[in-house]
Design goal:
With about 525 residues, the protein is an alpha+beta fold. It has 19 helices and twelve strands. Helix 1 packs across helix 3, helix 6 packs across helix 7 and helix 14 packs antiparallel against helix 18.
Length: about 525
């Protein structure tokens, strides 16, 4: 039969003998079932929670030479997870005893439950659980007063959200502070999570909380009864999410880059310059930006609350660490947070002890920045105006002049206030007056504070047989949160322009080798044939 509008033909039926064999035909074996696959991949799953289904198929092919189906590989993975980490439903019942075991060995850990009553006696339905480990609570007192919060999806048998609060140490490294598993992200769940942190974890005032613009977070942060409204705390928006919201609305990369420049500007003068440029290009975009208070997203209006942290990237890094665990039973997820945090504390405690022994005064993060600024300070011109108050005019190689006040420890460039350690202009003025500029570095960046942050110890959890007996109500998972149907869970992530890689190459047609389409939609098929 001839294919319409082409010079090709299709053979619909052939009555002669078949002399060719398709090597890509399914070569599955009926005895190679999902149970055998699960036994084979248990060690692989234990080593890597994020093992893909394609990797499982490849491993089976390498061992037995058979190409199993996607569904069989996925079923084998689910069975291996149940064998290694227990049943998803049973894990909710076992979770209270797990927390008792953790608290038994690590006194001072905080666990807060929220459950719902049922018609069954001595049984309650799980709704939320909050936990924070004692070393995190103690170590956060030595971190900068900055905290990032975000939520991420659970991908196991039961839906839900994992809420995370993340601090940042003096070496600009992530510091996991608190976790919660809730039914979802809304004003009530975020308010409950933040209330648990304020009441049970830290009462520090002036904490800067960085997040995206989720309505639940915005509502909870504005509630004066939760203890996170100014001046008890200061809310700031992640620049990356803010720029993404802007891009979704206006779809202009040039404007988006200008928004990022305005957000990162260290002075109000630079900020106004970028904002004026945006206004000349698109007045509607300028109006959209002016609706959001500048102190929420612009570094020049921040007042030094952020310590230069403009995004929630450190939290995203930890989310990627937990990516595989988010598809495991709830008890396995909690245990992973315990062991992961312990590994952080062990490694960084050793780094801090070594730096203390070598008499290093500051963290590597600050040392690197100060060394660069000392080099810049050596080429600047200094004019002294008041030796008592320490008033200077400092001129850089580019011809920019900034006013320095050593008595008040500030400079008109704004960077000392923003980051908490001296800018090159203050360093230059200190060198001119033979003043030790290291006194301008905030205490959070000292090696002593860094060591104190990671000094608290995690203690080994006892064997399960030695855990205290749990005599409370039986916790069961909520039926409304259960995922039904077989196969891979449907992603609930809301994708936006942040998920698109910039500079991604266009698809290339396999027939005509041109960009922008594939061979199935190729319009040049006849010419190529």
């Amino acid at each position: 039969m001839v294919v319409k509008d082409t010079s090709l033909f299709v053979i619909n039926k052939y009555t002669g003998p078949h002399t060719c064999v398709n090597p890509c035909l399914n070569q599955d074996h009926h005895q190679l079932d999902s149970q055998l696959v699960s036994t084979h991949i248990k060690a692989l799953i234990q080593a890597q929670f994020t093992l893909s289904t394609a990797a499982i198929q490849a491993s089976v092919m390498e061992k037995w030479g058979y190409q199993i189906s996607y569904k069989k590989a996925l079923d084998g993975k689910h069975k291996a997870i149940r064998q290694l980490f227990g049943d998803f439903s049973q894990s909710y019942t076992e979770l209270p005893r797990l927390f008792l075991g953790i608290e038994q060995a690590n006194l001072g850990c905080v666990v807060v439950w929220k459950t719902c009553e049922t018609n069954m006696p001595n049984t309650e339905v799980f709704q939320r659980v909050f936990w924070s480990f004692k070393p995190s609570i103690e170590g956060f007192q030595h971190c900068r007063p900055v905290m990032s919060i975000d939520g991420t999806h659970l991908y196991g048998k039961y839906k839900g959200k994992l809420l995370i609060a993340m601090g940042c140490d003096g070496n600009n490294q992530l510091f996991p502070l608190a976790f919660a598993i809730t039914e979802g992200e809304n004003t009530d769940s975020w308010g409950w999570f933040l209330a648990c942190i304020r009441n049970r974890v830290t009462q520090r005032t002036g904490i800067c909380v960085i997040s995206d613009r989720h309505p639940g977070i915005m509502g909870a942060m504005a509630d004066p009864h939760l203890g996170w409204a100014a001046p008890c705390a200061y809310h700031r928006i992640c620049m990356r999410h803010f720029a993404s919201n802007f891009m979704t609305r206006f779809k202009d990369k040039v404007l988006k880059n200008l928004v990022c420049r305005a957000a990162l500007a260290s002075t109000e003068c630079k900020f106004k310059k970028h904002m004026n440029t945006i206004g000349r290009i698109n007045s509607e975009a300028l109006q959209w930006l002016e609706v959001v208070p500048f102190q929420l997203w612009a570094l020049s209006h921040d007042g030094g609350r952020r310590y230069g942290l403009m995004t929630t990237n450190i939290l995203e890094v930890f989310n990627s660490v937990l990516k595989g665990a988010r598809s495991l039973p709830i008890t396995a997820l909690v245990q992973l947070t315990f062991f992961r945090l312990n590994s952080y504390f062990v490694a960084r405690r050793e780094v801090g002890a070594n730096r203390l022994a070598s008499t290093e005064r500051f963290t590597p993060y600050v040392d690197a920045h100060i060394q660069g600024r000392v080099v810049k300070a050596g080429s600047m011109e200094i004019v002294l105006y008041d030796h008592v108050k320490g008033l200077f005019h400092v001129k850089s190689r580019r011809g920019r002049t900034h006013r320095v006040n050593l008595h008040e420890k500030n400079c008109t460039c704004g960077k000392t206030l923003i980051y908490g350690f001296p800018c090159s202009h203050i360093i230059s003025a200190c060198q001119h007056r033979c003043v030790d500029f290291r006194s301008f570095v905030e205490g959070y960046y000292t090696t002593k504070s860094y060591y104190d942050t990671w000094a608290p110890l995690f203690h080994q959890i006892f064997n399960e047989d030695d855990w205290p007996l749990y005599d409370g109500t039986v916790i069961v998972p909520p039926a409304s949160m259960q995922r039904f149907g077989s196969g891979r869970p449907k992603s609930t992530r809301l994708h936006n322009e942040m998920d698109v890689r910039e500079g991604k190459s266009l698809i290339t047609c396999g027939l005509c080798k041109q960009l922008g389409h594939n061979r199935r939609s190729c319009k040049n098929m006849n010419q190529v044939q």
